Amino acid sequence: MTSHASHLDDEVLSTFVDQQLTPEESTWVVTHLQACPECQARVDGLRSVAALLRRLPEVEPPRDFSLGPRLLVDPPNVVRLRRWYTATRVAAGALVAVFVMMSAGTLYVDTRPRALEAVPNARPQVLSAPVAPTENLAPPPAAARAAAPAQAPAAAQAPAASGAAAAPRPAAINPQADDQVAAATSVRPLPTPVPTPVPTPLPVRVAAQVVAESSEPGALLGIGTMVCGALALLVILVAFVFRHRLRRASHT
Amino acid sequence: MQPDAGTLEDTLKAAQRGEVAAFNALIQAYQHQVFNVCYRTLGNADDAADATQDALLNAFRAVNGFNGPAAGLRSWLLRIAINTCYDQLRRRQRRPSESLDALHASDGEQEVTLGDRLHDPRPGPEQHSLGAETARHIQQAIDQLPNEQRLTVVLCDVQGLSYDEAAQIMSVELGTVKSRLSRARAQLRVLLVEKGELPAGSARLQERSP
After folding, report:
1. pTM
2. Nearest to A65 among B56, B120, B163 (CB)
């Protein structure tokens, strides 16, 4: 191909400006430029840009970027916060794991005998006696934390009083919107739903509970699950508080 | 401001043992260039200072992993610096309103004179040969380039690094450097002609040519 047949592309010309072409390529470009004022003008243009850029003044850094102790180690409060945050996260994870396992255990223990049990309509009368004592046994761990023991028995009595107690139960939970109480109370209704997580007619649920109460390991497991869940929620809450503080501390 | 090879090697070894003082000696040697690359890439002193500090801190944390000869230290530091700049540019793109504000601010005459005073507290001897106005126009033109082209032109033309070193810093092929640089220069020529910093003749010829 002859050197003037077509114009050279910018890449070749730009590389030529930097004298980075091979000697052969260079000679070829020089030959082309002699015959092609258009490419010569483009070379001049590229060269003038490069020359202008090279004359850009160096800028003095506004400060010394040496690494001081402040940059290398976090301030002690951040270190401490981070340690606590990590600890609470691990604890929360462990508690959640235990909670899940215990829930599964409770479910297993509770569903096994329920299959054998018939569900007669007369259930409410039978249950009024056994439910009250065990329900009173269940609340103490959560209720003590929530400092609202009065509400717990009240909620426990509700199903015993009326057979179709679907409405009173949520109503008893709702008023306790207070922060700390909420952590415990959100777990409070657990003993009932845990045996049968799927919404079932109340008689069935109540029957399951009665069965659970008749078998001691099931009841203990239920209480343990509830406590564990409450603790998990509490620790998660604390972990969030630490995270928030850590964020704020490391921003300053 | 390059330390001689023997000292550099020793200083690097000490820095790799975790001696902050030794790493700070390396910072003394390279911070000027690192800051300048960041400054020309990001277009303003505040962002450049942040990027420089981040890059040098990251470099200190990673210096154990640097196993090349000390001569490659500059490229290594600049690679960390441009990666930090990329992160900044990406963050900027995620917040378009803010970068738009910055763009408007840099157009404002008052903002720019203040900026110039901040950026060039001690004008070097070159400052006299290239006016502040021209320098500002060039920087504005560089700011308008796509990221890759901008970086290439900063490394090759503003910093005067070789194609090889630029390729190494950007982790690209030599041919990529050549093509990016040529596109950046062609684009800059058009922009600088528009701003009246270059004669129009060559640009008109460029537009006519295929």
Report:
1. 0.55
2. B56
User: Chain B partners of A73 at a C-beta cutoff of 8 Å?
Assistant: none
Q: Closest Cα to residue B187, out of B201, B205, B206? A: B206
**Could you tell me how many CB contacts below 8 A there are between chain A and chain B?**
138
A46 in B contact zone (CB under 8 Å): yes
pLDDT, tens only, B106-123: 444 444 444 444 444 444
Report how far residue B49's alpha carbon sits from residue B47's, in angstroms, rounded to the nearest whole number. 5
Q: CB distance A67–B183 less than 8 Å?
A: no
State the amino acid at position B70 in one-letter form: A
Residues of B in contact with A45 (CB under 8 A): 189, 198, 202-203, 205-206
Q: What was the pLDDT predicted at B132?
A: 85
Radius of gyration of chain B (CA): 18
Contacts of A124 (CB under 8 A, 6+ apart): A160, A163, A203, A206
* Distances in whole angstroms, Cα of residue A123 to Cα of each of A127, A158, A159, A218: 6, 15, 11, 20
The reply to whether residue A71 touches residue B53, judged by beta carbons under 8 angstroms, is: yes
pLDDT tens, position by position, A63-101: 999 987 766 656 566 777 888 899 999 999 999 999 999
| Cβ atoms within 10 Å of B160's Cβ, excluding its own | 10
Closest CA to A192 of A243, A155, A217, A246: A155
State the complex-level ipTM.
Answer: 0.77
> How distant is the Cα of B97 from the closest Cα of chain A, in angstroms?
23
- Residue of chain B whose Cα is closest to the Cα of A9: B210
Q: Could you write out the DSSP letters of every residue in A36-68? A: -HHHHHHHHHHHHHHHHHHTSPPPPPSS--PPP
Q: Which residues of B touch A53 (CB under 8 A)?
A: 138, 153, 157-158, 188
Q: DSSP secondary-structure letter at B2?
A: P
CB contact under 8 A, B179 and A48: no
The answer on pLDDT for B148 being more than 80 is yes
Structure tokens at A112: 């096994």
B57-109 pLDDT tens trace: 989 888 888 888 888 999 999 999 999 998 888 888 776 654 444 444 444 44
Cβ–Cβ contact A18 with B under 8 A: yes
Does the beta-carbon distance from B49 to A13 stay under 8 Å? no
Asked if A65's CB is within 8 angstroms of B27's CB, the reply is yes
